[in-house]
UniProtKB/TrEMBL annotation:
Protein name (Swiss-Prot/TrEMBL): Heparan-sulfate 6-O-sulfotransferase
Localization (cell): Membrane
Gene that this sequence comes from: Hs6st3
E.C. numbers: 2.8.2.-
Organism: Erithacus rubecula
The keyword Transmembrane helix appears for this protein: yes
Cellular component per GO, a single term: membrane
Alphabetic keyword roster: Glycoprotein, Membrane, Signal, Signal-anchor, Transferase, Transmembrane, Transmembrane helix
């Protein structure tokens, strides 16, 4: 009985199982060319307009994500004036695996400024001096000052380290850190 089962019945069963699995992954989600779209029951009862129905359909398809950090619109849209000629300093917080290296390079090499950063061939650090100055820098980053506060310094380390590092470099720097 085992030999007959293995020879005649097992291959068709395995083939059928294989076809069911393939069909599950290859077949369209709905039969036919397109899935029929039904308005939600709540919209049909209210008799809402097409815009309301469209919003409800989108909400049904994509669940809303709760805001983890609900920032006020005023905070997100605020304008901060940066005075490159004054004492303001941009402190670049490098977060690993977020494209920070590429962005940091763009800050020193590709921004069109009145006085662009001076980068020597073969060196990673560039001199980003303020317009009209030779010593004071407007950018505190790995590509302008090096790892002055340590490798991948976080916010806490930078907050306590940047003023002292700027003093060591002979830069007056703005004492108000943003």
């Amino acid at each position: 009985m085992d030999e007959r089962f293995n020879r005649w019945l097992l291959p068709p069963l395995l083939a059928l199982l294989f076809l069911l699995i393939v069909y599950q992954y290859v077949s369209p989600a709905c039969p036919g060319a397109a899935c029929p779209r039904r308005p939600p029951a709540s919209a049909a009862r209210r008799g809402g307009g097409p815009e309301e129905r469209e919003e409800e359909e989108e909400a049904a398809v994509m669940p809303r994500l709760a805001a983890k950090f609900p920032f006020a619109r005023g905070e997100l849209c605020r304008r901060v004036r940066f005075d490159m000629r004054g004492r303001d300093v941009i402190v670049f917080l490098h977060i690993q695996k977020t494209g920070g290296t590429t962005f940091g390079r763009h800050l020193v090499r590709n921004i069109h400024l009145e006085q662009p950063c001076y980068c020597r061939a073969g060196q990673k650090k560039c001199a980003c001096h303020r317009p009209g100055g030779d010593k004071d820098t407007w950018l505190f980053s790995r590509f302008s000052t090096g790892w002055s506060c340590g490798l991948h310094a976080d916010w806490t380390e930078l907050t306590s380290c940047v003023p002292a590092a700027m003093e060591r470099r002979g830069c007056a720097g703005n004492r108000t850190l943003r």
